[in-house]
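Prompt: Have a read of the protein record below and flag anything odd:
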Amino acid sequence: ESVVLGNFNRFLVFAWHRKNREWAEVAQREVENLYTVTALAWRSDGSRLIIGSLCGGVDMFDVCIRRARYRDTHEFTYVSVSQVIVKSLATGSRIVLKSNVGFEIKKINIFQERFLVAQTPESLLLGDLQTCRLSEIPWNTSNTEKYFFDTPTVCMIFKKGELSLVEYGCNEVLACVRTEYMSPHLISVRINGPEENAMAPPGCELKVIAYLLDLTTVRVCDLVSNQTLATIQHDARIDWLELDPNGANKLLFRDKRRQLYLYYVDQQMRVTLLNYCNYVQWVPDSDVVVAQNRGHLCVWYSINAPDRVTLHEIKGDIEDIERSGGRTCVIVDEGVNMVEYELDEGLISFHSCLERQQFAKAVDLLEELPLTPETEAMWKTLADTSMEHFNLPVAERCFAILGDAPRSRYLHKVNRLIQDHAAEVGGDGAHYYLAQAKMAMLAKQFQRAEAILVEHNELDLAISMYQELLKYDESIRLAEKKNHPKVLQFKNNYLQMLLTTQQEETAGELQEQEGEYQQAIMSYLRGGMAAKAASVVSRHNSNYSPELLQKIIGGLQASSMFERAGDLYVRMGQVAPAMDAYRRGHAYRQAIELAKKVQPALIVNLEEEWGDWLVSQRQMDAAINHFIEAGASQKAIESAMIARQWHKAEQLLDQSTMGADNAAAMPFYERLAEHYSASRHFDQAERAFIKCHRPAGAVQMYVNAGQYEKAHRVAKAHMSVHEKSELYVALAAELENAGKVGDAEQLLLMVQDYDQAINMYKKREEYEQMVRLVSKYRKELINETYKFIAEQFEMKGNLSKAEHYYVEAQMWTSAMSMYRQMEKWEDAMRVAKLHGGKQAFDKIVLAQAQTIFKEHGAEAGAMLLVKHGLIESAINYALDHSNFAHAFELATHSAPHKLPDIHLKKAMALEDQEQFKLAEDEFIQANKPKEAIDMYIHQRDWVSAMRVAENHDRNSVNEVMVQQGKDLLTQNNLQGAENLFIQAGKPELAVQAYSSKRMVNEAIRVCKKHCPHMLGDVMESNSSSNDPNGPSGAQSLDEVLDAAKIYEDTGNYSKAIVSYLSVTETFSVDPDRLEEVWENAVRLAMKYQPEKYNEIVAVVAQRLKVIGRFEAAAELFESIEQAKEAIDCYMEGKIWEKAKLLAQQQYPAMVRIVEEQYKSDLVKKGDGDEVIRLTGDVDRALDMYARQGDFTKCLALAEKHSPKMLPHYLIQYGKDLKSKGDVLGACQVLTRYGPPTEQSNFPLYKDIMADVLNGSEPHGPQLLRDMLMSLLRTATATLIGPPPPPRALMEDRSLQSAEFHKPLLTAHYQAVRLRLLGIQKCPEVVAKSSISLCRWYTEFPIDQAFYNAGMDCKNAKMVNMAFFFWNRFLDISDCMEDPDNAAAIDNADFINTDIPPPYNAELPDEPFVSSDQVEEIRDCVLGWSMDPNVQQKMDSRQCDKCQAEVYIANLSCPQCNSKFEPCVVTGFPVAKRTRVECTACRAPANRNDWNSWVQEFKACPWCNEPQNAQY
């Protein structure tokens, strides 16, 4: 691009201009004394120019255009616009970057300190600084490219979904693939030359890439041939993949479930390595895989045997794999330390030997290792590889070590054969044809072995080979082909062998080939191959006997080949059997063809049956037309939908007789709508949604598709306003969760739910959108919104945003405070100055000064204030921090008027430091002598105070004297104080002093001499000294009364009244005396001060009321006509008659209140009878008794006077007894009054039931039975007459019967059992009742049920039943000890009983019996299990209906589902032959059990009516 020409004392530079296509002079350099240029030379990279001159001088010039530094790591030297020298500053290495087509290099980047990327207008230059390989490819740069350098030999460029691969050193793109998933973990590239890949064929390069087509699909491509090697479909998202380093014929990949897979590219086979994988990597430069499965390090030394894995326990996570210095280590991070786990380098090196075909070295490596699963897999790999390369001695050795003696011995013979042939003829014996043939036999390549032998005229050996392998057919084929003379003998021998070895099929085929059809058919039939026999008949028409055909048919039917049998039946002319055979074999086509000929009416049924069968075979497409032909429209539609033929299904729906309004069509239209919606056929989906009355589905579909106008159209046309609003809000929530906030906003605005839209943006912290909506729809909240947003940004630390929103909210002070808290003073001052003016700015400066003072001292803070022109503030600041010198300096230069203030501040500071003389001087300089005087007065330094006053403030001399006099008063120096007060012209102070000391005479003396005008006041104060509230302090009652008496005697009645009223209840505890004193005040007021009479009487009445003299207080109130207050007093005093009388006479409005208060008083006294007698208010009396807990009276009163309220208080009483633990009392009272039947009371009944049935009280079950019987009789309206029998209650569908008939029967049979146990009679009846109770063990403890059943059966000599019940009891006891094994209970013995399975039973917290008793039962059951006399079978009986054997206590037959009534004595089913009934309640019972009960108790156990035995 440049040419240099030499001349005398100068040289000229010419450059080639591409546009003008000419050389132009660009520079001319003149060098003095250079003389003539005799030689010119460029440096090879063009960066230097060497000039030789006539005088023998050699000069070197730097001719670069410019230089640049790149991140202080590299230097760019621009030799020309298209050539740059890149130099590493660390190593000094250089590389010349040059555009081969002369384009200008615009930009250069270096990645990872190694890889070079340069851009020109029309090309891209890529280079590797280590290998100095450069590439230039045509490229249009868009600045959106991403470069990846994970593979050292190739650069990957990702641009707009396309991945381009460029191999360094090649000037063209290696390959381009389409993928959206560009990550080092999701792309693997292997590029090796022939010299790097020993496994590759000679002259063949390995260039393979594996990448993701989508999240679940991997594609592996050969970049050389541009062929797809494999496409791997997976069922989960793949998050990691990598090809093996050598050969690239194996791919490891892992999915999001952390499952690790190995894919063999050449075999197209996938293998699962781990179900959970934390880490996986190929060991560098080997086929060894290292992975982590939670706490295990997994190593596959031979990846070709994936089941052979070596495991190591580790305690952390794998970080990396290091291979150097002949060691391979796995680095594991165990939290505190990084631990190395060394791998077996010998096993790793083994694979390198295989790659280089160093089989002998591989044998040596393996022989040093013990035989483990890993090494065994390696021996196998070595054997296979050596066999492929025909290294038979190594293969023999491998099979011998693997224990494959036959193969090893065979190879040994082949090796001997090779050695003998080599010794005989010389050369390489491996090419000996017999050896090649034998190896072909070993590889099961018999055709190749045959070809080798025949080629060498060894026909007999080839035939013998097949015969030794029992391949007689091949030997016959070969003999026939070569016209061997013993072909017929071979065939006969083969046939005899087949027949003797029962190979009838092969024999039949041979006979068929020979034309012996009858014998072939018989051979097939003997071998059970009727189909082949039938094939012979169909292929070869002949006269077959009917017996033979019938045999074939029988064989076909036995083999379920009904279609073939049908064909034979048709051949025999038997239509009905043929039709039956076709239908049984599902050969409906033949059946229909046959029906068309002989039975057309059957075609419709056959078509529908054909369609049903096709549906069962999942052949829906084929079934549709058959259902249509059969007229089964619904089945045709269903099949079409399952076959995903939606348009046909819709067509059938529209054409069928169901119609759009038929309810049967709705599900089909719904499915159509869902399909069309999923496939984005929105118009069809909308039509289907409307037809199935689901417009909301259509709206949601359009919303999901973003077609809001159509959604709104459908909602407006087919939905109410409320429905539309609810739907839009719900859809908006879904869109919000999916991140489609714009769509969600649009929906919410459509239904005018502005607040919801605003709140959505608020939750997502999209504040700009939030402000937009608030400003548009909630303008009144805009400032609050700005404030909220500002606070959020402030919490997140985004102060500039927070400031912006604070200012928008007109809360700039908050922004200023925010910056102050963050100590961002510049920002705070900026905000204050911009929005608050100078005052706010000064305030911020002062605050900053305060902060600087704390950190750097007072002077620094003052300097800040001076800096901002706040001189006075700076002075005040210095004064606040006692920096007086700095304050004087500032004031002297800039503010002299502040000097007095500074002196004053300093004086006050000195005063605080008790440096009074210095403080005095400062006060004087501040022109504040008064403060100095006050300082000395405060210090009682009267001399100094007087000195200052006389010298500087004469007006303060008297004040000093007064203060000194007051000080003398505190020291009781009254005379000295008097002199000072008089001297200061304040004699009144002396009078006050004497008066306060009760020195009246002295006070009068001073008054007479110095202030006569005060004499009257002194006398008055002397008289007021007797005031109890006066200066003399609190007085006793007698003193007050004496003073009052004196006032009264002297005519000072007002003061007398005040004295009397000054007596309060604190003066005396005697109310009579207090009343007497206050009456004096009333008396004097009435007589001498009538204008204050009412006021005084009211005060006295209130005081009497306080001390409990209500009647006297009421009379006083009456005297001043305050009737209401008087009535209140009478009521408080319980003087009800006077209160009533006064209310009736003077205040009728209070009559009702008096009556109410009177009633309340009676209630408080608990006198209900009196309440009813006086008021007739029964409800109030009931409530009173209930609150007092006297429910006996409450219930008796309610039963008598208020039956409607009886259930309320009855339930309240029941809950009270239950809470006190008296559940039996609760049963009794509920039985006495009849339990209410409302459902709200059921929890109380269930609590009582649970406590009674779980308790041990012997009378509890009977009381509970009576209560529940009363409840159910009330519910069923059978209170009059006998109770309904058990079956009626069991079949009753009322809520009460459904809830409580089982607890009733449980309580009944427990009561029966306990009564019999109480008299120790009828053990068999007791056992039966216990057995029946097991049916309802859910109502009481399960272990108690089976324990009692076993014990009672044992006592009744029913050992078989006792064995089963106690066995179940032991299972339950074990489960109580270990609840997790409850599901392990074997319920096989009780499977056909009506005893519920125990799996979901609630186990009791406490066992029913002790552990010792459990062990005794366990020993007893174990003994019974060993006793042959104990039949381990539950007792049974015959069902009255079906005669089947059923469990003896079953109330239903599991075979015929017959129901049986329970016996009221035992709970056993009542048999027809032994049935008796109670003559009163008609309750059934078994005769023997009934008679046993009646003989003891003479009454029915159900209704308790007297009964007799029945025979």
